[in-house]
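Risk register update: the risk of archive-format incompatibility is retired. Evidence:
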Amino acid sequence: MVHSNKPRVLKVEQKLLELLNRAIAREIGVSVQYMWQHVMAMGMKSPEIKDIFEDIAVDEMKHAEKIAERLFYLGGTPTTKPTPIMVGVSLKEMIGNDLRAEDEALELYAQIIKVAGSQGDSTTRLLFEEIMTDEEEHKHTFTILLK
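Archived output:
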């Protein structure tokens, strides 16, 4: 018996593969954004916020990995291009940018959940429901920091 390194391919529409690549690009972009904010954060409140930026950056990179693995399994090729990175200058501007990024993620991931569900891809749907929980937590964290 010959084994192939090719992923097992489910029958999914191109739209879902494109949405997954958008999600990967977003996760790569924000992981860099949050890590650079971790490096650049300055001021009296920065020590505690620097650690938050770093922790969330790592979460986002793990999301990118999980999504890329799923996309590859479905027969797609994961992107290496991030979405635009909006670091900001002040802590307030950084956190505002991050809050917008999390809102965009929640909107995109709700769309992916809907499309995956309509295509009968419960694994992708469940993956994004799990990731969405993390993104809601990130949004909550940034909302509290902005106050």
